[in-house]
Amino acid sequence: MSDSESDALPLGYTPITKSIIYLFFKGVKKKMKIRTRFAPSPTGYMHIGNLRTALYCYLIAKKNNGDFILRIEDTDQKREVSNASQLIYQTLEETGLHYDEGPQMGGPYGPYIQSQRFDIYHHYAQELIRKGGAHYCFCSDEIQEQDPCIHLSDEEIQQKIQNGTPYVIRQTIPQTGITTFDDEVYGHIEVENKTLNEGILIKSDGYPTYNFANVIDDHLMNITHVVRGNEYLSSTPKYNLIYQTLGWDIPTYIHLPTVNKDETHKLSKRDGDASYYDLKNQGFLTEAIMNYIALLGWAPEGCEILSLNELIEQFDIHHISKAPAIFDIEKLKWINGMYLRNMPLQDFHKLLLPHYSFIHQSVNLLEVSRVLQPRLLQVNDAIIQETLDFINQAYPFDIQVYSHKKFKTNPEKSLNALLLVQNHLHEISDFQNDENILQFFINLAKENGMKNGQVMEPVRAALTHKRSSAGGAVELVHIFGKEETLKRLNQAIQNLKNYL
Q: Cβ distance 108 to 102 under 8 Å?
């Protein structure tokens, strides 16, 4: 380490060991492969926009056989939530976004938690000051134009620091010229330097700001592609001025469109909008959530139902839209329903079993799952209990359910049909075989000059007392079996006789 580098250490901070300094000053390695980073703040559950950024970072890296890095940006102490970092690790693990380097597994460019990298930020803040890219600021008010502290002499600065005057380190912005950059989504962008405010790099409490730390870390971690929300487009010229002052290569930028709840309002964790775990608790599958999130601002060329591996294969940054993506819960429900229907029945049944705890009636639960599989869009207690609220006991008698315009039934015809079924139910040889049950109804209708629906709809109504239900007469007889079916038929017949 040279004397000049040693002199650059921040005032009031313990010198960094030579071995660590060597790591920082050994220069930029030749970028042999794409490296992306997901850099969340530990401020609570991961919201949808954040998870989409993580997914896109992962897809871009894996599409190109690159590395996906996790970095925890915990410099905003006021907003940090206890245990939020664990939620980040857990979410990435559950969603299959396995990172190659990060806090829990380490790597050659650690530490990967910003609060453990303070000496690094202060070192480069001093480097920027020496090169004219930053300056000490002792102003107590917000700076609207160029900071007057930029004109302080070295002697005045040292005197103020020795006197204990609070200060920040602020970026020095040239008042002339234009800063330009190219974004993979938004194209070529030019900004007049005089329109940029001189933001704080190191706060008065010694903490770096995001706008400074992310630049330093991206360079030192050899990040080749920076993927983030488009709210950072306006700050990117300031980041580039830091890169240029320090003589560093500028990464490839991929700014993503916002995810909105409607045409004008952005999804926001602070406003209580859905997080990943909120959606999980509502009964959405992880695979469906990730599939849908991939479509928020990006469009595949063909089928929209894509596994994570298929997303890696198809993902193309040139198909990312500039327009805001609208979070459509109905589209998510449709995608989730597709995943549920495509599951093997035994897997679907295993998924539903914990939600059947309210069922006290002795019924064929596997058949219940088979009936629900093509119908459910979400899997949670409330939906399943509402769908199966007739299982433990039929709804109270309602004469209206025995009139059906399509099947041309009414209470009198329904009673006649139920009496026929009651008298011949013993002819069903196997109550666990849908084909046997269906054929029984078909034969009974044909022998008595009736339409199939004129027999089967009254049976469905008698077993549920609902206008509509999951499953028709065949499925419900299978679910309930002979004894419960006959019991409910008898009760319905008695109710109809009493009414008529």
A: no
The residue type of 488 is R
Could you tell me where the DSSP H helices lie in 64-109? 84-95
Return d(Cα 143, Cα 201) in angstroms, integer: 14
Is 269 annotated as catalytic?
A: yes
Residue 254 CA to residue 449 CA, distance in Å, equals 69
Which residue, among 328, 141, 308, 108, has the nearest Cα to 149 in the 3D structure? 141
Up-side HSE of residue 15: CA atoms within 13 Å toward CB? 10
Tell me the pTM.
0.87
Q: Residue 365 and residue 373: Cα distance in Å, rounded?
A: 12
Q: What is the pLDDT of residues 33-51, one digit of tens each?
A: 899 999 999 988 889 999 9
**Phi, psi values for residue 445, rounded to 5°:** -65, -45
**Per-state percent for the chain, helix, strand, coil, to nearest 5:** 50, 10, 40
Integer Cα distance of 269 and 464 in angstroms: 42
Give the pair of three-digit tokens for residue 181. Answer: 């950059």
Q: Which residue has the tokens 């207690």?
A: 381
Alpha helices in 305-376 (DSSP H): 308-314, 329-342, 345-352, 365-372
The closest alpha carbon to 185, from 234, 259, 253, 260, belongs to 253
Catalytic residue from among 269, 280, 331, 466: 269
* Residue whose tokens read 């500028």: 250
Euclidean distance between CA atoms 108 and 219, whole angstroms: 13
Domains of the chain: 3-256 (3.40.50.620), 343-387 (no CATH), 399-499 (1.10.10.350)
* In the block, residue with structure tokens 């013993």: 426
Give me the residues paired with residue 70 across strands: 38
Confidence at 86, pLDDT banded by 50, 70, 90: very high
**From start to end of 2-113, where are the E strands?**
35-38, 67-70
